[in-house]
Amino acid sequence: DIRLTQSPSSLSASVGDSVTITCRASQSIRSYLNWYQQKPGKAPKPLMFGASSLQRGVPSRFSGSASGTDFTLTISSLQPEDFATYFCQQSYSSPRTFGQGTKVDIK
Amino acid sequence: QVQLQESGPGLVKPSQTLSLTCSVSGGSINSGGYCWSWIRQHPEKGLEWIGYISDSGSTDYNPALKGRVSISVDTSTNRFSLRLTSMTAADTALYYCAREKDYAGNEIDTWGQGTLVIVSS
Questions:
Q1: A42-79 pLDDT, tens digit each
Q2: Who contacts B44 (Cβ-Cβ below 8 Å, separation ≥6)?
Q3: B20-67 pLDDT tens trace
Q4: Which residues of A touch B (CB under 8 A)?
Q5: Interface-testing mutation among B34, B40, B42, B49, with chain A (most A C-beta atoms within 10 A)
Q6: Would you state the pLDDT for residue A45?
Q7: Using CA atoms, how far apart are residues A37 and B56, in angstroms rounded to an integer?
């Protein structure tokens, strides 16, 4: 199975801050890396696919990038509604796997 | 816009079989180009992919579930189902149905709201 390691596991930030979450794959997954946002008691919400493509309706303050097996999700100016847990997922091979999540909370 | 809704028992006894159904609304389950998936989330933990069934009827399951899982589709009712046998406390989780694109990035673009399943006698 392809292992996805997210870092950090949690972070505290303020509104307006820029935050970056990293997801490292245990082997090449090309650009088959997706990001989801989950709020308490809710299902995950698709944010980004193909490492850097925004899902429809997702604000442009979210961006993604890739370098080899390292992927990053950046929120350029954190808004109150962005405090949530973020998961990466690889859709390159079976079984699909997820990172363990990064919780972004208010400082 | 397609919406997914899980249904099934919230409580299952150890060793029993879990059966969950996902109702698809706002679109046809055999419209093509999608795989219909099940994913679970253990309390306060991460997400685990269970498997999917494609629109051609082929299935793919997580080997970690050791042959206990099967997923089927009923196009007449626009629903797909999960069957998980030999349930144990370790299977207590929030179960989501989801739709994965069978093209481009193969990402999940739609999730159900989830249904909690507790395994207890």
A1: 999 999 999 999 999 999 999 999 999 999 999 999 99
A2: none
A3: 999 999 999 988 899 999 999 998 778 999 999 998 899 999 999 989
A4: 1, 31-32, 34, 36, 42-46, 49-50, 53, 55, 87, 89, 91-92, 94-101
A5: B49
A6: 97
A7: 30
